[in-house]
Specification:
76% of the residues lie in helices and 0% in strands. The chain has 198 residues and is an all-alpha fold. The chain has two domains: 1-95, Rna Polymerase Sigma Factor, Chain: A, CATH 1.10.1740; 101-198, Winged helix-like DNA-binding domain superfamily/Winged helix DNA-binding domain (Arc Repressor Mutant, subunit A, Orthogonal Bundle), CATH 1.10.10. It is built from nine helices and no strands.
């Protein structure tokens, strides 16, 4: 069963095999959760949206026509579930860093985790349409055409959203860097002032 394609597993599920859909969940659960988390910025909401996505896929399994890859079809359901969750909450909400994430930043000498968290924070400030296109294309590696299929929009619109999303993230990161540089310069000037007063 592990060697079967997603489409073959779905067909097996539709023939009555109770384990086939469970295998599909196992294959895709982490990436679907990650997608929902990046859209929503909150673990609890992402878990709810992930569950809704798989329930939705299970209910619509017989409607899958194979016109697109199973993963494209599933990601479209997941994006819609996450957007519905965000609408129910009023907008995407975020939670502060949890202890295990804070510890990871402290133990990360290369700064990779801190950089990833900074980019993630900047991404959350970008309008939802741009953010979802960026997540699909830049973080999940979907091409513009496949992202367009997932989102149900023209390829040109995906390209525009990715471009504008990248500009917005870059602007947020530059603002953050400028703020940090200003703080560092202020601290340096304060230290210099203390030295000259001594």
């Amino acid at each position: 069963m592990n060697d079967a394609s997603d489409e073959e597993l779905l067909a097996t599920h539709l023939k009555g095999d109770r384990t086939a859909f469970g295998e599909l969940i196992t294959r895709h659960e982490r990436r679907i959760y990650g997608l929902c988390f990046r859209i929503l910025g909150n673990r609890e909401d992402a878990e709810d949206a992930t569950q809704e996505a798989f329930i939705g896929a299970l209910r619509r399994a017989a409607a899958f026509r194979g016109e697109a890859a199973f993963s494209t079809w599933l990601y479209r359901i997941a994006v819609n579930a996450a957007m519905d969750q965000a609408r129910r909450r009023g907008r995407a909400r975020t939670t502060p860093l949890e202890m295990d994430q804070t510890a990871a930043v402290v133990d990360d000498p290369s700064g990779a985790v801190a950089t990833a968290l900074t980019v993630d924070a900047a991404l959350r400030t970008v309008p939802e349409d741009f953010r979802i296109a960026l997540i699909l294309c830049d973080l999940y590696g979907f091409g513009h055409a496949q992202a367009a299929e997932i989102l149900g929009i023209p390829v040109g619109t995906v390209k525009s959203r990715v471009f504008r999303g990248r500009l917005a993230v870059g602007k947020r990161l530059a603002e953050r860097e400028g703020t940090q540089a200003a703080v560092a310069a202020s601290e340096s000037a304060e230290t210099e002032r203390h030295h000259t007063e001594e």
